[in-house]
Design goal:
Its EC number is 2.1.1.182. The protein has 2 domains: about 5-190, 3-Layer(aba) Sandwich (Rossmann fold); about 200-255, rRNA adenine dimethylase, C-terminal domain (Helicase, Ruva Protein, domain 3). It has 10 helices and 9 strands. The protein has helices spanning about 15-25, 45-50, 65-75, 95, 115-120, 135-145, 155-160, 200-210, 220, 245-255, and strands at about 15, 35-40, 60-65, 85, 105, 130-135, 160-170, 175, 185-190.
């Protein structure tokens, strides 16, 4: 029995054992911060095989594809009771883990990868570590720092709460079917910031508005928010890719105080 990759689910099955081992090894579980790992979209269990070899956590899997669920139940008896059928984006983690912390791993479907990341940020206090494969462009965007072309909205939102490292690039030919783009693996570790020192909804609005017109200086891109505010400071002469997370927090507070 095999599982046919389904285009509408964005499935590209990884078939390189050495890369699966590398991904599993990137989960460091420093300080034994968690005892459970949730793999998203395991397909036929290529990565699952190597996660199960780890003895410092228990592996759980979730997949929306019923064919994959049937395959895993037939071929991975060690996962009995830890195979969940459902849409990760719609699931309530309390259903599976209560208030326990857990890590997330996976070769994520590229068509919903950004949504997966936003879901993780929403549940950041329960997810201390993430190791995952994305389209290379998305992986670079998530991990890139200020001053670089790839740095953008996703970078700021995620780096506000996670320290992120780009691990390695994966070529197209190790997947079935091969995607049309290269892939990249990143590791995200929860940082010490418990909350933003500003209005979080306003922060999101400021970041989105700034990067939606990223070629303009902040003085121009944020003009609707800056009425009545002294914009003579140097920060307003900058474009958004020059600002760190802390800079955006400071900018949000300036807007909020006007």
């Amino acid at each position: 029995m095999t599982v046919k990759a389904k285009k509408h689910l964005g499935q590209h099955f990884l078939n390189a054992p050495e890369i699966c081992q590398q991904i599993a090894d990137e989960l460091k579980n420093e300080g034994e911060a968690y005892k459970k790992v949730l793999e998203i979209g395991p397909g036929m269990g290529a990565l699952t095989t190597y996660l199960l070899k780890r003895n410092d956590f228990d592996t759980y899997v979730i997949d929306i594809d019923t064919e994959s669920i049937d395959y895993l139940k037939s071929n991975f008896p060690d996962l009995k009771g830890r195979i969940f059928e459902g849409d990760f984006l719609k699931e309530d983690f309390d259903r599976y883990f209560g208030a326990e912390p857990f890590a997330i791993a996976g070769n994520f479907p590229y068509n919903i990868s950004s949504q997966i990341l936003f879901k993780i940020v929403e549940n950041r206090d329960q997810v201390p570590e993430v190791v995952g494969m994305f389209q290379k462009e998305v992986a670079e965007r998530v991990a890139e720092g200020p001053g670089k072309k790839a740095y953008g909205i996703l970078s700021v939102f995620l780096q506000a709460f996670y320290d992120i490292r780009y691990c390695f690039t994966v070529d197209e030919h190790v997947f079935t079917p091969p995607p049309k783009v290269k892939s990249g693996v990143i590791r995200m570790v929860r940082n010490q910031r418990e909350r933003l020192d500003c209005d979080e909804e306003l922060f999101k609005r400021v970041v989105k508005m700034a990067f939606n017109q990223r070629r303009k200086t902040l003085r121009n891109s944020l003009k609707p928010l800056l009425a009545g505010l002294d914009t003579s400071q140097e920060i307003f002469n900058l474009r958004p890719e020059r600002l760190s997370v802390d800079d955006f927090i400071e900018l949000t507070n300036r807007v909020d105080r006007k």
